[in-house]
Automatic annotation (TrEMBL):
SMART domains: AAA. One of its GO terms (molecular function) is ATP binding. Residues 4-230 form the ABC transporter domain. The lineage of its organism: Bacteria, Bacillati, Actinomycetota, Actinomycetes, Propionibacteriales. The keyword Transport applies. InterPro entries: AAA+_ATPase, ABC_transporter-like_ATP-bd, ABC_transporter-like_CS, ABC_transpr_LolD-like, MacB-like_ATP-bd, P-loop_NTPase. PANTHER family: ABC TRANSPORTER RELATED, IMPORT ATP-BINDING PROTEIN. This is ABC transporter ATP-binding protein. It comes from Aeromicrobium wangtongii.
Amino acid sequence: APAIALDHVSHTYDGGVLALDDVSLTVQRGEFLAVMGPSGSGKSTLMHSAAALEVPTSGTVRIDGRDTRGLSETKRTELRRDLVGFVFQSYNLVPSLSVSDNITLPLRLAGRAPDVAWIASLVDRVGLSGRLEHRPAELSGGQQQRAAIARALVARPAVVFADEPTGALDLRTAQEVLELFGEVAEDLGQTIVMVTHDPAVAARAGTAVVMADGRIVQTVQQPTAADLAG
Ligand code: ADP
Ligand code: ADP
């Protein structure tokens, strides 16, 4: 099954705003997809629907082949815990926990035993081997985001959703983080869905979809910033 399959998904918020208008989208395993578009175009609603955070008004959402329709709040939470990782603009690390404990938090929440070799390889890949006992506040922004990426990957989710993951970073650090996403997709076969309003950021993904008024209006393979600027 594809990592994500949205079939004719629409979403109307209370008050009548049609935020998603009949969107169908398939994200294959190992794909690094950017969701682009101006503010208010429906990017967040699309991400929240695809991540089973929000229940769409109509249509079906499958994550790793599992239909998310009709699930209770509890079941949706379980499904996210099993299948989805998140990376946020503001890192959202737990300030009181060490880098190590932040990275392994999803495993503890899921009651899963840590695979020590996998965690070590992940920590090495994100370049934080020397920082494991530090608190988040002792790290640079780029290091904090790399810790958040390791945390999102640690439970080997079907898909990682990244919401403006470079929005708080300077240009050089942002490029390092985007490079890391590319490597993780390529080397680990990790599916990544990244939301961004920035064409230069979206251009680092393997595929970009462009949204306007709740619809996908353009899909570009191997995008360049120029493809996405218009
Ligand atoms: P984007 O992420 O591209 O900025 P959103 O998905 O946040 O777009 O928003 C799409 C549309 O839905 C906008 O018109 C926005 O104002 C509206 N919207 C978003 N969240 C809510 C909400 N909780 N209640 C009502 N309207 C909302
Ligand atoms: P980078 O460019 O590697 O993302 P910086 O140039 O911002 O990081 O920081 C250089 C070093 O200083 C980093 O290795 C980081 O651990 C340390 N550092 C950055 N910010 C802080 C901070 N607020 N407190 C303690 N150490 C920090």
